[in-house]
Amino acid sequence: MNSINGGQVFSHELDGWSVSWESDGNYRHWCHQIKNPEWNSLLVVMFNPGSLSGDGSNLSKDTTLRILREVCGAASLNPYVINLFDYASPSPQDLFDNWNIRDSNSVVFDKLPLPIFQSYILAYGDYENWGQRDSEIKERQKLVLKHLESLNEILLPTNNSGTPKHPMIWQRQKIKPNISALLQAAPNKSKHSDAASCAGV
Fold this sequence. Notes:
The protein contains five helices and seven strands, in the order ββββαβαβαβαα. It is of the alpha/beta class and 201 residues long. It has a seven-stranded mixed β-sheet, with helices on one face. It starts with 7 loop residues before the first strand and ends in a 16-residue tail after the last helix.
Protein backbone atom coordinates (compact mmCIF):
# COMPACT_ATOMS: atom_id res chain seq x y z
CA MET A 1 0.00 0.00 0.00
CA ASN A 2 1.19 3.48 -0.83
CA SER A 3 0.69 6.84 0.87
CA ILE A 4 -2.21 8.93 -0.38
CA ASN A 5 -1.67 11.95 1.88
CA GLY A 6 2.07 12.34 2.32
CA GLY A 7 2.44 10.22 5.45
CA GLN A 8 4.24 6.95 6.22
CA VAL A 9 2.48 3.63 5.64
CA PHE A 10 2.76 0.88 8.25
CA SER A 11 1.52 -2.71 8.19
CA HIS A 12 1.15 -5.32 10.93
CA GLU A 13 -0.44 -8.73 11.26
CA LEU A 14 -2.99 -9.16 14.06
CA ASP A 15 -5.41 -11.99 14.74
CA GLY A 16 -5.06 -13.27 11.18
CA TRP A 17 -5.68 -9.82 9.68
CA SER A 18 -3.30 -7.60 7.75
CA VAL A 19 -3.72 -4.10 9.19
CA SER A 20 -2.24 -1.18 7.23
CA TRP A 21 -2.51 2.53 7.89
CA GLU A 22 -0.97 5.87 6.98
CA SER A 23 0.36 8.07 9.79
CA ASP A 24 2.02 11.46 9.94
CA GLY A 25 2.93 12.62 13.44
CA ASN A 26 -0.26 12.94 15.47
CA TYR A 27 -2.43 12.08 12.47
CA ARG A 28 -3.76 8.88 10.93
CA HIS A 29 -5.25 9.29 7.47
CA TRP A 30 -6.77 5.86 6.84
CA CYS A 31 -6.67 2.27 8.09
CA HIS A 32 -7.36 -0.78 5.92
CA GLN A 33 -7.89 -4.15 7.62
CA ILE A 34 -7.74 -7.16 5.29
CA LYS A 35 -8.66 -10.69 6.34
CA ASN A 36 -9.06 -12.14 2.87
CA PRO A 37 -7.81 -10.38 -0.28
CA GLU A 38 -10.73 -11.87 -2.18
CA TRP A 39 -13.27 -10.08 0.00
CA ASN A 40 -14.64 -6.67 -0.95
CA SER A 41 -13.78 -3.56 1.05
CA LEU A 42 -16.31 -1.52 3.00
CA LEU A 43 -15.65 2.17 3.63
CA VAL A 44 -16.28 3.06 7.29
CA VAL A 45 -16.58 6.74 8.28
CA MET A 46 -15.55 7.35 11.89
CA PHE A 47 -15.05 10.50 13.99
CA ASN A 48 -11.30 10.56 14.69
CA PRO A 49 -8.58 7.89 14.96
CA GLY A 50 -8.24 6.20 18.34
CA SER A 51 -5.33 4.26 19.82
CA LEU A 52 -3.77 3.27 16.50
CA SER A 53 -1.39 5.89 15.17
CA GLY A 54 2.34 6.24 14.59
CA ASP A 55 4.14 2.93 14.18
CA GLY A 56 1.32 0.84 15.66
CA SER A 57 2.57 0.17 19.18
CA ASN A 58 -1.03 0.51 20.40
CA LEU A 59 -2.67 -1.49 17.62
CA SER A 60 -3.87 -4.31 19.89
CA LYS A 61 -5.41 -1.73 22.27
CA ASP A 62 -7.69 -0.20 19.63
CA THR A 63 -11.06 -1.66 20.61
CA THR A 64 -12.96 0.05 17.80
CA LEU A 65 -10.76 -1.54 15.12
CA ARG A 66 -11.19 -4.93 16.81
CA ILE A 67 -14.98 -4.57 16.75
CA LEU A 68 -14.83 -3.66 13.06
CA ARG A 69 -12.75 -6.78 12.38
CA GLU A 70 -15.33 -8.93 14.16
CA VAL A 71 -18.40 -7.36 12.57
CA CYS A 72 -17.03 -6.98 9.05
CA GLY A 73 -15.26 -10.31 9.14
CA ALA A 74 -18.56 -12.05 9.87
CA ALA A 75 -19.92 -10.37 6.71
CA SER A 76 -16.84 -11.29 4.62
CA LEU A 77 -15.81 -7.65 4.24
CA ASN A 78 -12.51 -5.83 4.75
CA PRO A 79 -13.12 -2.52 6.60
CA TYR A 80 -11.35 0.60 5.35
CA VAL A 81 -11.61 3.38 7.95
CA ILE A 82 -11.47 7.09 7.30
CA ASN A 83 -12.30 9.79 9.83
CA LEU A 84 -14.03 13.14 9.83
CA PHE A 85 -10.89 14.49 11.54
CA ASP A 86 -7.40 12.95 11.33
CA TYR A 87 -6.02 13.96 14.76
CA ALA A 88 -5.42 10.65 16.56
CA SER A 89 -6.41 10.25 20.20
CA PRO A 90 -8.46 7.64 22.06
CA SER A 91 -10.18 10.54 23.84
CA PRO A 92 -12.61 12.67 21.79
CA GLN A 93 -12.25 15.38 24.42
CA ASP A 94 -8.53 15.51 23.61
CA LEU A 95 -9.50 16.25 20.01
CA PHE A 96 -11.81 19.06 21.14
CA ASP A 97 -9.04 20.43 23.38
CA ASN A 98 -6.72 20.47 20.33
CA TRP A 99 -9.30 21.59 17.79
CA ASN A 100 -6.93 24.00 16.06
CA ILE A 101 -4.85 21.00 14.90
CA ARG A 102 -7.75 18.64 14.14
CA ASP A 103 -6.56 18.15 10.54
CA SER A 104 -3.18 17.64 8.96
CA ASN A 105 -2.09 19.91 6.05
CA SER A 106 -4.84 18.49 3.81
CA VAL A 107 -7.95 16.36 4.17
CA VAL A 108 -7.95 12.88 2.70
CA PHE A 109 -11.48 12.48 1.33
CA ASP A 110 -10.80 13.66 -2.21
CA LYS A 111 -7.78 11.30 -2.42
CA LEU A 112 -9.59 8.08 -1.53
CA PRO A 113 -9.42 5.13 -3.94
CA LEU A 114 -13.20 5.21 -4.40
CA PRO A 115 -13.34 2.61 -7.22
CA ILE A 116 -12.49 -0.15 -4.73
CA PHE A 117 -15.74 0.45 -2.83
CA GLN A 118 -19.40 0.13 -3.65
CA SER A 119 -20.78 0.93 -0.21
CA TYR A 120 -20.00 2.83 2.96
CA ILE A 121 -21.35 3.03 6.50
CA LEU A 122 -21.43 5.94 8.94
CA ALA A 123 -20.20 5.07 12.42
CA TYR A 124 -18.95 8.37 13.84
CA GLY A 125 -21.23 8.52 16.87
CA ASP A 126 -23.07 11.41 18.50
CA TYR A 127 -20.25 13.90 19.05
CA GLU A 128 -22.08 16.59 17.08
CA ASN A 129 -24.45 16.85 20.05
CA TRP A 130 -21.82 17.30 22.76
CA GLY A 131 -22.21 21.05 22.66
CA GLN A 132 -18.62 21.45 21.42
CA ARG A 133 -17.96 22.43 17.79
CA ASP A 134 -21.35 21.01 16.78
CA SER A 135 -21.80 23.16 13.67
CA GLU A 136 -18.25 22.50 12.47
CA ILE A 137 -18.72 18.75 12.86
CA LYS A 138 -21.93 18.91 10.82
CA GLU A 139 -20.17 20.91 8.11
CA ARG A 140 -17.45 18.27 7.90
CA GLN A 141 -20.07 15.54 7.64
CA LYS A 142 -21.60 17.32 4.65
CA LEU A 143 -18.19 17.65 3.00
CA VAL A 144 -17.39 13.96 3.44
CA LEU A 145 -20.80 12.81 2.20
CA LYS A 146 -20.39 14.95 -0.91
CA HIS A 147 -17.18 13.09 -1.72
CA LEU A 148 -19.00 9.77 -1.28
CA GLU A 149 -22.00 10.54 -3.51
CA SER A 150 -21.01 7.83 -6.00
CA LEU A 151 -21.23 5.11 -3.33
CA ASN A 152 -24.18 3.35 -1.72
CA GLU A 153 -24.82 4.02 1.97
CA ILE A 154 -25.73 0.95 4.01
CA LEU A 155 -28.22 2.19 6.61
CA LEU A 156 -27.55 0.95 10.13
CA PRO A 157 -29.36 1.48 13.46
CA THR A 158 -29.01 5.03 14.77
CA ASN A 159 -28.97 6.73 18.15
CA ASN A 160 -32.16 8.37 19.43
CA SER A 161 -30.83 11.65 18.02
CA GLY A 162 -30.64 10.10 14.55
CA THR A 163 -26.84 10.08 14.52
CA PRO A 164 -24.90 6.91 13.60
CA LYS A 165 -24.11 4.49 16.40
CA HIS A 166 -20.40 4.14 17.18
CA PRO A 167 -19.02 0.55 17.06
CA MET A 168 -18.53 0.70 20.84
CA ILE A 169 -22.32 1.12 21.08
CA TRP A 170 -22.80 -1.91 18.82
CA GLN A 171 -20.84 -3.88 21.39
CA ARG A 172 -22.48 -2.34 24.45
CA GLN A 173 -25.98 -2.95 23.07
CA LYS A 174 -25.03 -6.46 21.85
CA ILE A 175 -26.10 -5.79 18.26
CA LYS A 176 -22.87 -6.80 16.50
CA PRO A 177 -24.55 -9.86 14.88
CA ASN A 178 -27.37 -7.60 13.63
CA ILE A 179 -24.87 -5.19 12.08
CA SER A 180 -23.03 -8.09 10.40
CA ALA A 181 -26.32 -9.36 8.96
CA LEU A 182 -27.17 -5.93 7.54
CA LEU A 183 -23.73 -5.63 5.96
CA GLN A 184 -23.92 -9.11 4.49
CA ALA A 185 -27.33 -8.46 2.96
CA ALA A 186 -26.28 -5.19 1.30
CA PRO A 187 -24.66 -4.90 -2.15
CA ASN A 188 -20.92 -4.59 -1.58
CA LYS A 189 -19.28 -5.80 -4.74
CA SER A 190 -16.59 -3.34 -5.84
CA LYS A 191 -15.16 -2.77 -9.29
CA HIS A 192 -11.74 -4.09 -8.28
CA SER A 193 -10.70 -6.87 -5.91
CA ASP A 194 -8.67 -6.04 -2.80
CA ALA A 195 -5.76 -8.05 -4.13
CA ALA A 196 -5.06 -5.27 -6.61
CA SER A 197 -6.65 -2.28 -4.92
CA CYS A 198 -4.82 -1.14 -1.83
CA ALA A 199 -4.66 2.56 -1.03
CA GLY A 200 -2.58 4.47 -3.47
CA VAL A 201 -2.04 1.53 -5.83
